[in-house]
Amino acid sequence: MGRVLLVFRLVLADVRRHPAQAAMLVVAVTAATAALALGLSLRGGTDKLYWQTRKVTAGPDVVALSPGTGPKTIRALTSLEHAPQVVAHSGPYRQYYTSLTANGSTGAAVVQVADMTPGPVDRPLVTSGGWVRPGGAVLERGFASALGAEVGDRVTVAGRSLPVVGVAVTAARSVYPWAPGIGPGGGPSDGGGLVWLAEQDTRALESSDVPVTSFINLKLRNPGEAGALNSRDPAVAPAFEDVMVNMKTWRHIAQQDFVMLRNSQPILVIGSWLLSFLAVGGVATLAAGRAAGQTRRAGLLKAVGATPGLIGAVLLAEYLVLALLADALGLAIAGLAAPTVVNPSASLVSTAVGPSGDTIAFTTVAAVFAAVLTTVGPTLRALRTGTVSALADTARRPRRRAWLNRMSAPLPTSLLLGLRLIARRPGRAVLYACTIATTLLAVTALLMVYVQPDRGYPGSSMATHARTAQDRHLLLGVTIAVIALALVNTVTVTWTLAMEARPTMAIARAFGATPGQTAAGLSAAQLLPALSGAFAGVPLGIALVLSFSRGDVPKPPTWWLLAAAVAAVLATAVLTAVPARAAARRSVARTLSAGSP
Fold it and tell me: Is 108:191 a contact under the CB 8 Å cutoff?
């Protein structure tokens, strides 16, 4: 316990000395972990939400729908009650195809006749207000959310204004906007939301101009055999002789719920890859920037008798602890965001949804791997450095290339200094160029997606619009996270470069360079990689969208893409200006003195 306590105290002391760097590491890993956890949770999360809703609302195993309300239709639906595998039922009920207006918005709707007390199968869960009563309407929660309607608002159905007395969820219908089940006459549906009304309030809808469908909810002895209840079953075959009956099983309803998220999973998973790359790049920059300090720290620990194992534990433990903390924060954010992402229409119960055990294990391993991958190199170099050399903290002698000196000598002072800094650490310049390219890839993909026409469900404009909006909102959120992380990385890289270049810039100033020239040189060391990364990221973003598209894909105006690339370069210039000027104003004598920190 003494060694563990010692490591903990040393790690805590180092975090207190460098809080900004610790915060940057936590932010980077948190963003990547949250996106990855959300992407991995979509499929299982949707199933979990459906089963929660099905459990609390006594969801049916089969919903049988038939156009019309004639005696043959009702007789056919009623005969299904006597099928051997049916153990309970509710209905038959009627649903009318109409429209509903609320808060100035009008949407397609199916109005279902509701019992004052729901039957044994399909008992909707009221999430706000109360259940149906004469003169009042209850809206399905996804439909209410789309219309912005709440309890107490008024809605207009069939020319009659009614107050909203409740909002509810059900597992008997697919999520909004697939409430109709089947369209008028048994054909395809253009989508719509669900409204429950008392029987007397639906009489105004009884007209030859308003299509109507009858349906019954069935509970089976074995839900796994729901697909076997069809026209080929001898027990129910007579019901299908003269009447068209459409069977919607619970599996169909559950699968339909995931259709809204079909494009969401690739967006989140690919977004998590981009964020993970930016996180690894940021952590690697932090580790490299602190390499000299960590080497001196290792020398101090060796001087007081610490073993290599203890020193390695101290140097690695800080990054591991921060990575695990960031992983926990990312998983917590994913748990909070999951109900909104996994349940975009709000049509399902979302009381308990979040990352599964497999997702938690995977993201934790990924966070630890990222921390170890980026810090093990500097840690090993610190351990291999002798005690005297580590304490002396001598500068590395740069390699001299005569041809490079001849080529760069005629350049302006600022550009010359910037190129020299890039030449000393080309790997970091390439890493920053990749950071900008990654950011422009995400921005270009966002612009590409926003100019695409709505494509999705022929004959269902509501469903197409709902899924397109979901995809665009998710992509916008991922892009904002990528931009934010890229900004953090830009500040990290620039500040690290400014700290490492202090001696070089001080020598340049001693030979006549002005503070403005040294500041411009530090900015140029970032702007040149940013230029290459910006104009490489645009075609990469176009290629990414084309790889997931079919047919002709519209492209945004060229000036949009150029503006995005120029904006990335200008943002780099602004973010690098402050640390570059702060470093350039540092006293030359203080920097070059032997006792300077």
Answer: yes
